[in-house]
Specification:
The chain has 73 residues and is an alpha+beta fold. 49% of the residues lie in helices and 21% in strands. The longest helix is centred in the C-terminal third of the chain and has 13 residues. It starts with a strand and ends with a strand.
C-alpha cells in the first residue's frame, strides 16, 4: 500500500520532511526528493508498506496535522 502525503498551504516544507524522516525512517535527501516530486500534482507517494504499517504511518502524519492517506499501489 502506498503512503500518500498531500501538499497543502499550511505545513512547511521543513515540517513535512522532519515528519517523513521520523515516521518513515527516511534520510533527509530522499524525503526532499519525494516532496519535490509530489508538489506539482498535490501529493506524493512517500512510502510503500504492508497495509498495517501504511495505516500506522498515515495515523502518525495525521497526528501532526499533515494530510495523508493510504492507497493501493
Amino acid at each position: 500500500m502506498g503512503v500518500i502525503v498531500w501538499n497543502d498551504d499550511v505545513n512547511t516544507f521543513e515540517h513535512v520532511i522532519r515528519a517523513m524522516v521520523e515516521i518513515l525512517a527516511h534520510h533527509h535527501r530522499p524525503g526532499r526528493a519525494a516532496h519535490h516530486q509530489g508538489a506539482p500534482g498535490g501529493r506524493a507517494i512517500v512510502a510503500v508498506r504492508p497495509k498495517e504499517e501504511a495505516e500506522v504511518a498515515v495515523h502518525k502524519f495525521l497526528e501532526r496535522r499533515i494530510q495523508a492517506s493510504v492507497e493501493q499501489t
